[in-house]
Amino acid sequence: MLNIAVIGAGAVGTSIAMSLEPTMPVTLLGRQSDVRTYYDRETETQTTVDVESLNTHQGVFDVIFIAVKTYQLAAVAPHLSRITHANTHIILAQNGYGQLDSLTDYHAYQGVVYISGEKKGQYVTHFRDRRIHVQRDSHTEQLAQQLVHSKLEFVLEDNIEQTIWYKLLVNLGINTVTALTQDTARILKRPDVYALCRQLLVEGLTVAEACGVTFPETTAEDIMQIYTGYPDDMGTSMYYDLKNKQPLEVEAIQGYIYRQSQLHQLHTPTLDCCYHDLKQ
Ligand SMILES: NC(=O)c1ccc[n+]([C@@H]2O[C@H](COP(=O)([O-])OP(=O)(O)OC[C@H]3O[C@@H](n4cnc5c(N)ncnc54)[C@H](OP(=O)(O)O)[C@@H]3O)[C@@H](O)[C@H]2O)c1
């Protein structure tokens, strides 16, 4: 039986742990020993979950999901050598890209997370979806076999770059405009904001292409269409982080795309401007 840990007892981490729990034991590691009250909106069930301290945990794990915010990874990384062995596989359950650069000593994968939830104090609500996409290889194929009876959908991709970039682009448009205007999805009804959002996607697609990831020509329109379907009062993670005076995951989303644009010497004025505004 695999020895699995999840680091980060927040919305995504607790949801991953609870999706795996019925079929296999999972250690949920947080900043300190604690408990979470986990409410699953789909099944309308409430469970109390124990959280153990990452700082003092002495166990060693075969698989570790990391579900802290991207800017919190630096504080987690120093603990990894203590709780891994030579064949431990680490899956980053985070938005954004570029974080693997700090985990080059490990077998680490960038996951693409489709899990919707929220943490308020010790209370975690899971709204919908329990899906993580990762690159297919012999290790992830084995892991997928082990997880097949769990509630976590572990999707193997032949080209994870495409999946990572698609989510990056979806986050780029709506997160940027809702954060900059400090308004919810209804802000897209303003023609100037709609045009700005679309232009961000167009520039983002240019950067993706320079990185070797191509999308169909209709992708900017398709993503705008997805945004148009969002309820007016829907916020984004960046919108809520700003409202709650929390740091934003700018460096892993807009910052990553901006740095790739610079690297490839591309002309992306809207992206550059929005990135600099968000950084302030
Ligand atoms: N929430 C969603 O619906 C959703 C959807 C898709 C993707 N994502 C992505 O998933 C990632 C995680 O987001 P989230 O919403 O789950 O964040 P979250 O609710 O804030 O959870 C992060 C958890 O990590 C813990 N943590 C931070 N630093 C730690 C450390 N050094 N050691 C141990 N635990 C630590 C935090 O503890 P404290 O509470 O004490 O700070 C918190 O419980 C982000 O990249 C996010 O963009 C989220």
From TrEMBL:
Keywords associated with the record: NADP, Oxidoreductase, Pantothenate biosynthesis
GO cellular component: cytoplasm
Name of the gene encoding the protein in the UniProt record: panE_2
Protein name: 2-dehydropantoate 2-reductase
Keyword Iron: no
Catalytic activity: (R)-pantoate + NADP(+) = 2-dehydropantoate + NADPH + H(+); 6-phospho-D-gluconate + NADP(+) = D-ribulose 5-phosphate + CO2 + NADPH
GO BP of this protein: pantothenate biosynthetic process
Domain Ketopantoate reductase N-terminal: 4-132
Protein origin, superkingdom: Bacteria
InterPro entries registered for this protein in UniProt: 6-PGluconate_DH-like_C_sf (IPR008927), 6PGD_dom2 (IPR013328), ApbA (IPR003710), KPA_reductase (IPR013752), KPR-Related (IPR051402), KPR_N (IPR013332), NAD(P)-bd_dom_sf (IPR036291)
One Gene Ontology molecular-function label: phosphogluconate dehydrogenase (decarboxylating) activity
Organism the protein comes from: Staphylococcus muscae
Domain Ketopantoate reductase C-terminal: 159-279
Family: Belongs to the ketopantoate reductase family.
Enzyme class: oxidoreductase
Pathway note: Cofactor biosynthesis; (R)-pantothenate biosynthesis; (R)-pantoate from 3-methyl-2-oxobutanoate: step 2/2
EC number: 1.1.1.169
Family annotation (NCBIfam families): apbA_panE, PRK12921.1-4
